[in-house]
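Shipment paperwork, digital attachment
Item: protein structure file
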Amino acid sequence: MAYNGIRLQATIYLGNLYGGYVTRAVLAGEGGEEVELAPSFDPRRPNRVQVLLPAGLAPGRYAVALYDEVGCPGTTEDLLRVTDRLQIAVASIDPPFGWTSAATAVAVAAQQPPLAGQVQFVSTPRVYVNPNQAGAEDRAAELRGVTFHSAAELHGIVDAGLPPRLYDIVVVNPDGGVGLLSGAFRVTAAPPPIVDTVSPGSWQNSAEQLSVTVRGSSFDPASVVVQCRLPGGGQYVEPRVTIVASGWRSLELTVDTRSIAHMSVCVMRVTNRDTAYADYSPITVTNSAGKFVEFAAGPSMGVARRAPAVFSGMPSRTARFLYAVGGDDGSPARGFTSGELSPLDRFGTPGAWQPLPAVNALTTGRSLLKAVRFEDFVYLVGGADAADGGRASGAILRARILESSTRWRCPASIRWTSPSTGRTCRGWRRGSTTTGSPPCSPRATRPTREGGR
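Attachment content:
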């Protein structure tokens, strides 16, 4: 399926080419019209040919014919369908940039609700990055590891190695519907900025020039913007920020906090001159007394749990989750094996709780236990074991939280292992290496005891 409103790079896959090479590619329309294409063929990859589909092709179905160096053709009927309609209401891609030397995890969103006559995503689309205003030597790429999060959201990975330039995003549903975001993704030559810490992390709202230090890497700032959500939500303010000094690994700022209300929550965005940016949150705001004591109610868990293990996971710098595992209904002898998670937005507000899949359940019900986070691992220590009548347990469970780096392993945000035996847990399924804001749905695999009762 191809949209005729843009020049589109396409790959033709072939077989039965024994030692030769492709010299010519032709599209044949339903009315007999032919469109000559300029093929790009690499003998080291003899099963594929790159072609540039011109804009303005007549809608319809096309046969594709390839010719080798002695003029012998190979033709497949009805191989390409061209449309002049954009049916998928694609809204955005986040982040809208990636570094040429690293894979980038992205989230592609559809409009909610879609415009009249348009649709959202259907499980599971293909997603492509196509050079904006593509030329004959340019190359498109398919997103790797695309997962269907919902009809309004897809996750996937843009592989490293794309030349720095502007790219279109093309989405194709299984039913042939096409969506386009023109010039929506930029590949940069320099690495994007990373914000590790902002100090102080809590600001008093009485300073005309609050000194703030930002530490991280790859800073080449064009701007630093702070957006604060006022208590109660719905209203935002942007205090004045001045860059006092900048270096590759640190920034010195002053912030006028007088316009920020007590109990506000803020997000800082550092934008480099090549438009790549990094967000840091949450930054809390207190009154001049430095007190931040009020609590706001969030969504209730799906299961009422007494004394579950509670911990956080950050599989990427923009994807954060709060986990609750185990607990009981009031009696340690009736401990839960299940768990659930809540996604946190950039202001730290929890979203609706989602159950972890049954395959990710603890081996026995456990409550009154302690969760300890150490770097990329979380440890569940002791507690009451429901399988032993609620008696105290000396068992330790170890889980790995997906790294806050560019690469990690699917399918889980938690991977349980048994270092005492060296064996993988029962129910653990190996997945492909992926990157970024999680392409896999956040879930845990079955844990294994490591010691104790």
